[in-house]
Write a structure and sequence with these properties.
Protein name: Large ribosomal subunit protein bL21
Helix content: under 10%
Oligomer: single chain
Shape: elongated
Distance between the termini: 10 Å
Number of strands: 10
Subunit structure: Part of the 50S ribosomal subunit. Contacts protein L20.
Family: Belongs to the bacterial ribosomal protein bL21 family.
Strand order of the largest sheet: 2-1-5-6
Number of domains: 1
Function: This protein binds to 23S rRNA in the presence of protein L20.
Radius of gyration: 18 Å
Largest sheet: 4 strands, antiparallel
GO molecular function: rRNA binding; structural constituent of ribosome
Length: 103
């Protein structure tokens, strides 16, 4: 059984017991969260596809940790103009563990 959820503007395929890093969610560590934007649920041969969301479906997850991702380096340059700009960015994330998928 798996589901496709939407959180933080991105879509993720999730399975029970899986850990994944998503955009930062404002919740404390070791708390249960409910993700209600479920786009599709597959249970064996039964496929439920929403238009755009599956009615009544939800995914419960536990917040494992918060952190920051790898640094992305941005370098801008204009040739022959003596213009160079260096910048870096680290995106915040929340690591969650999928506990249950309810159709």
């Amino acid at each position: 059984m798996y589901a496709v959820i939407k959180t933080g503007g991105k879509q993720y395929k999730v399975v029970i017991g899986e850990k994944l890093k998503v955009e930062q969610i404002t919740a404390d560590v070791d708390t249960q969260i409910v993700l209600e934007e479920v786009l599709m649920v597959v249970d064996g041969e039964v496929v439920s596809v929403g238009a755009p969301l599956v009615a009544g479906a939800k995914v419960t997850a536990t917040v494992v940790s918060h952190g920051r991702g790898e640094k992305v380096r941005i370098f801008k340059m204009r040739r022959r103009k003596h213009y160079q700009k260096r910048q870096g960015h680290r995106q915040n994330f929340t690591e969650i563990r999928i506990d249950a998928i309810v159709k």
